[in-house]
Amino acid sequence: MTTIQQPRILGAGVDRVDGPLKVTGQARYPNDVNLPGMAYAAVVRSTIPSGRIRRMDTTAAEKSAGVLEVITHENADHLGEAPATFIKNPQPPLQDDVIRYYGQYVAVVVADTQQNATAAAGLIEVEYDRHEALLDLHDPRAERIKDPWGEDTAWGDVRTALNRAPVVIDQTYTTSENTNNPLGLFTTLAAWDGDTLTLHDSNQWPNMIQQVVAAMFGVPTDAVRVLTPFVGGGFGAGLRCWSHIPLAVMAARHVGRPVKLELTRPEMFTGLGHRTGSVNWIRLGATRDGRLTAIEHESLTTLPLDGDEYEPCSSVSTWSYASPNVTARDQQVRLNIPWTNFMRAPGDAQGNFALESAIDELAWEVGLDPLEIRLLNYAEVDPKTGRPWSSNALRQCLEVGARRFGWSERNPEIRSMRDGHELVGYGVAGVSFFWYQQPCSAKVIVRGDGSAYVRSAVTDIGTGTYTIMAQLAAGLLGLEVEQVEMQLGDSSMPVGTAAGGSGLTAALGSAVHDACGRLIQKFVDLAGTDPFSPLANVPFEDVSVSEGRLFRRGEPTRGESLARILAVHGLTELSADGNSTPNSPDELGMTPAGARGARFVEVRVDEDLGRIRVARIVTVNDGGRILNEKLARSQILGGTVGGVGMALFEDTVTDKDTGRIANATFGDYLIPVNADIPDVHTEFVGEADAFNPIGVKGVGEIGLVGVAPAIANGVFHATGKRIRSLPITMDELLD
Amino acid sequence: MTTLTVNGTEYPLDLADPRVTLLDALRDRLDLTGTKKGCDQGACGACTVLSDGRRVLACLTLAAQCDGREITTIEGLESHPMQDAFVRHDAFQCGYCTSGQIMSAVALLGENRAGTDADIREYMSGNLCRCGAYSNIVAAVREVARHA
User: CA A443, CA A225: separation in Å to the nearest integer?
Assistant: First the structure.
């Protein structure tokens, strides 16, 4: 009984179960919670990128109306070290006078209203001793970290292969810094009750916040409860315990009241990390007919002075195409900048832009159709190990996408297609996304009335976890979706992993799968102790479940409802815990393949003005088994919008003199608006993946990847201009 | 004392502090937290509410300006077809921009600006959605506009 019994529930476009709460304004995000006696906090940030605080004058702020407390490094609590949780977390704020980047927190003000707190924060005067800052990626004085994760990869002999290759593409591709900018302002509402602490907090991983805060404040982990039932998006921003969180906790302890600290939009640019810009140097070697003989990919990305970041841009070149010789290396440079951090498809987004642009250049160089060259160099097996993929429908993505798009109608000549003032270009890109899964747990409980509920500490950042897990549990327990209640986003529930890395569906889904299997086993065992049960003496393997009833497979009348089994045994409910850990590629003899995809884009460039417009997009993806096509499609649509942003708009600009982010508002940092997004056709292909019991791959990030190179490749087809630097802007297309 | 009329209910408010925006008054004083703060700078549309039937940004409206006006927030919609259409078309993900999107979309119908997809896209462009649900938002608005 570990197979899904009601396939009609899975895959179906079930509406979001949390939808009614969200369209009526009833879903409570962390900043929507108001507690009795609550005070408000406002932060003060450094205005230099490097140096020390010489003097702070907080007198005026302390006297300002409604102010309860001003905390600086001079009166802050000494906090414990922040443990690393997969990646590093920022060390506690206000522990010394050292400034490491522009925007670092130097004080927090607590007052009776937000208006009073914000006004008082503006009265704090800070004098600094400014030191010279490292702000340029190419500054020779900056620390360079080679092979930061020990994942640099090489096979074959790239040097010799490149020397002998009749065709070589040798180009540099750069991407800009991007800022996650979830719409929800990240907020921490901290409330102490004696030595226990409750946090209403915006994040993507409640158990991580719990663990880090407990360590910093020296309390047992279970004395901290983190509540995140809803969060206004994350896109990676909620995967670390950022410094505003301990600031709120410290402030609440100082004033003896609950304290709400809601970041402002400009603070969201400096306080939650951002996607590192990247320089990607790629050399491709190929035969004259376009077959790859070598791929060399090196990347350079940035780090803050005191943090880490996993952003292996070059790794896409180790699994995307078949090549007998490959070298992939990454380097990072430490600068006086706000933290770099995960943002939807970290590393892959940048690396794929470089690789898919280079492959396109190779196609033009050898005179091959850009679609054909991708099929010609298709990686039938994992090129690094020679192992089979757990599943891989990239070929189908490319072929189906080409048909839907009408790729065959493309005139291969540059600048050959036009519509009035507009040059028309078709671009394509392939995507091979990484695979990621972490351990996770869940509890599934069946109540006396036969309904069920599922609990896990994980949060649903908008991907649809509430809904698809309700579907999965319903399918496994033989219930209707409406009979399954989901309880997520509470660190006191069974320990859950991050809503990140496109890995939550596999991790939590496998845990729910495990729990449901154990729970049915318990029901079968229970029935087995009842001599009057129709299921007495029926072995577990022979039991099936449907419509809330267990029955002997092939004999539907011989069974008993879950509710009746509980009633007979005088139980109000029965529960089981489930856990999941990633399978071992070695044991299974296969390489887990992340999602796969293909992008086809029609771009239009105004010949006189250089204005770029994306006219239509076809995006076809292999996400393994799709648990809910409606919601999975939304993930892809959303990723596509992010990809358009990366390609055409998004650029976090740091002033090279002061280290200040110069465009830290939604007025200045452009993201796509509704009118920027054309018709998008999405489609899924592929089959259930063999690497986890529920066959999923995760589609939260892949939608973004490949959009930017497809647009850039389309711009080349339209105009003959190869843009190797994102974002692509009008000025680059003017003659 | 200022009187705020929100969703048909009159709330007497002590607005000794003139800096209080309509958005903060709704969220912090009246606990009507369905209206969201995404930027507090008039750039994202998450705080869109109706003032005498016109869409306004609550973050750029001082509460003290609203004396005598009828404010409608997401909590004041009574099972509007737009809400149902947003659910069925999956026109949101995290849901944070949704209140503002729906208030804008409801106003759009009254403005007669939902005639074509291009119009919907243009006149819904003051409401940012970082999850990228734009295509589904257009689908939801289109459906309600056609049946209006």
Answer: 18
Decide if A34 and B98 are in contact by the 8 Å CB cutoff: no
Class of domain A278-436+588-733 as given by CATH: alpha beta
Contact B87 A637 (CB under 8 A): no
Burial class (CB in 10 A: 0-12, 13-18, 19+), A117: buried
A187 contacts A202 by C-beta, under 8 angstroms: yes
What tens digit of pLDDT does each residue of A340-370 get? 999 999 999 999 999 999 999 999 999 999 9
The two counts, helices (H) then strands (E), for chain B are: 5, 5
Cα-atom radius of gyration of chain B, to the nearest Å? 15
Indicate the SS3 state at residue A197: strand
Q: Which residues of B are less than 8 Å from A28 in CB distance?
A: 33
- Would you call B28 and A114 a contact, using CB atoms and an 8 Å cutoff? yes
How does pLDDT run across A73-84, given as a tens digit for each residue? 999 999 999 999
Same fold, A33-133+185-233+238-270 and A278-436+588-733: no
Q: Kindly indicate whether the ipTM for this predicted assembly is greater than 0.95, answering yes or no.
A: yes
Q: Which residues of B touch A230 (CB under 8 A)?
A: 94-95
Q: Specify the residue for token string 């570990």.
A: A2
Alpha carbon dihedral A495, A499, A500, A501, in 10-degree steps, equals 70
For the full predicted model, state whether its pTM sits above 0.95.
Answer: yes
A394 pLDDT band, cuts 50/70/90, is very high
pLDDT digits (tens, 9 = 90+) for B21-46: 999 999 999 999 999 999 999 999 99
Determine the Cα–Cα distance for residues A417 and A414; give it in Å rounded to an integer.
8
Buried b (16+ CB within 10 A) or exposed e, A369-388: bbbebbebbebeebbeeebb
DSSP annotation of A83: P
CATH class of B2-75: alpha beta
Which of A183, A639, A673 minimises the CB distance to B125? A673
For residue B60, how many other CB atoms are within 10 A of its CB? Answer: 14
Three-state SS for A36?
coil
> Domain A33-133+185-233+238-270 - what CATH class?
alpha beta
Query: What is the average pLDDT across A709-721?
Result: 98
Residues 225-254 of A with CB under 8 A from B: 230-235
